[in-house]
Each structure stands twice: as C-alpha cells, then as structure tokens.
Amino acid sequence: MRRIALGVCYEGTSWLGWQSQAGGNTVQDVLEQALGRFTAQPVSTICAGRTDTGVHALNQVVHLDTTAERSLESWVRGLNALLPDSVSVQWVNEVPDDFHARFSAQGRHYVYLLRQHRVRSPLLQGRVAWVYRPLDLAQMQEAAQHLVGQHDFSAFRSSQCQAASPVRTMTHIRIEQQGDFFLFRFSANAFLHHMIRNLMGMLVYIGQGRQPPSWALHLLAQRDRRLSAPTFDASGLYLAGVDYPEQFGIPSSKPDDLLYELSGLRFGETAQKK
Q1: Coil, helix or strand at residue 235
Q2: Which residues are tagged catalytic?
Q3: Which of 89, 128, 136, 171 has the fewest CB atoms within 10 Å distance of its CB?
Q4: Which of 3.40.50.970, 3.30.70.580, 2.60.40.10, 3.40.50.11810 is the CATH number of 2-104?
C-alpha cells in the first residue's frame, strides 16, 4: 500500500464545495470517481481545508492510500484526462505513511479577491466578488490587525460549524489595493466554518464606513454571531495552500500568478517584478 498526496486546483462556482454529499456534485465526489477509474479500485480521500459551495482552490492538498503502481507524471496526466475542465491535479507525490493531509497541516492560507466599482463585471462573475460602495483601505487594515493572534472567533463561525473549539490563531492578515481591486490574505493554524466569509462581511462594513475599526474588537469580545455583518459572497474566496513539515516535501502554492490571470494585477512582492 502506498500513500499518495495530490495538489488539486478547482474553479468552485459549479460545485457544492469539497466534501462528498449524497447528491454528489462536489469536488471530492468527482475526484474520487476519477481516482477509481484511474486505479481500477475504490478510493477514499482525505483533505485539508474543506471548502464551501462556490469557493475555489489553488492548491488543496489531498491524500489517499492505494496499491496502484503508476509514475508520478502518469498520475497527473491520467487523472486530468478523467476530470472536468473546472478541476485539475497540479502535482502528485508519494509520501510516508505518517503523512496526513489534515492532521499533519501546520497552517492554512486563503486569499479573497474583491472588486469595488459602481458596475459589476460579467467577465469576473463567480471568480471575483464585487461591491459598488467605495472602500477605505486604511480602515480595513486597522480593523484586520485586531484579529491577529489567538482569539475566540465565535462571532465569525457558522451555526453549522462542528469544530470542538472556536479558538483559532490568526498568524497573518494583509490587505492590498490596486485600482478597483482589493486582495485580502488570511493565514491561521485553522479556520472555522464560514469564518473568512464572515470576517469579510465585517471588514467590508468597516471599509464602507458603516462601523469603525474598533468594531472588530467589540465582536471578538461579544462572541455572538448575531451581532456581526452578514456572511459575504463565496465567489472571491480561494484556498491558497496548506503548510506542512518540510520532510514531507509538499509543494507550496504560489497564488499571485493565478490571481494575476484573473485580475491582470500584481500584488505584494510580485508587483515589484512586473
């Protein structure tokens, strides 16, 4: 038996998220169907960072156990020949038996791409979120810094969240703007169900001047989801990657290049190389 790790990229607009459902139409369902055909045996997968309906992934890490003997390149090409156009395997590695896509993960990274303009763009529909009211970058950046560190994020978890604890450690939030586009980067040890979309709802309210930056601190202290802003649009949210101990050899993601394809803009360090 071999343990195989995959890096999966998908455009999530047409999918009901990652996790398998009775009615199908999830990324896990279609990936396991392709794996079953490719290996000629039933396959069960485990991932890090389960995504919701309409959410995208740039480098979602998945593992499986199999007796199938194939070259790594054959795994990539063979699976992609069996997957729909909106889902693609980016890389495949054989990993040791103690690797676990979920439990070996040390950190998770998401990016959110938002466009502020008085008119929506049909060319970006489903891939970039949109607001028409102006946003104040400095106000959102100030609010975001209140979220960094270990906090009880009960005010930003879904009522359907099954996590045993609402406490998470947010290691990094960065918000950048180029023209009409805003890029939000979130890094944490783990995230709660709908946590980023609920944080985005709050940050947009603050950016629009509907609440002050200190509202972030107030919501953290109150720990009441009912007091916060509505859950924000899924379309701009991307699971960018997952961190693992170096000995497992899991490729890291480079989200900026793919985001450039969507928006035509460079953010952060890549902006210096343009």
Answers
A1: coil
A2: 52
A3: 136
A4: 3.30.70.580
